Amino acid sequence: MLSFDAADPTWLQLRERALDGACAVVREQEVLVAGGKHHDCSKLSPRTGLWSAGPALFDALPHRRTREAHCAGQVGAATVVCGGLDPPLHDFCSTIVLPGGADAAWKRGAEMVVSRCSAGGAVVRPRDANGHQFLVAGGRGPRSSDSTELYDVVDDRWVRIEARLMEPMEC
Fold this sequence. Notes:
Distance between the termini: 23 Å
Mean pLDDT: 85
Largest sheet: 4 strands, antiparallel
């Protein structure tokens, strides 16, 4: 992978890192990569091109298992990871939240309404400083889903949304 810094217009070779099934968000001017096959949590500095260990995600996960095919979003200062799959093919309905701050640790959040993996996720009103919601749609539980639900980071609560996708789909 190559990185380009607009302030110093030279290309920088990044060290490779295998991140199969992980999710990435931009958090505090770094790329935070959470979960994935045989991976916990890492941070990539775009300034140096170096990887470092991120806050331990496994400590907050049920049964300390890996998580892949999940969704993640940066909702204000908080990073949200939800849903997904563990290697024995068990769908998760759990939510893990990393609050803002350099010394923050992952903590368990509310359970999703529906267990799902391979769902799509999006921050609602990402440019709004008061925005604190994360929408999850579709995915696969026992079967492909057309349902949607909304997570409120401040209230730590999931709510099923009446609006449905036009057809069941996975992301």
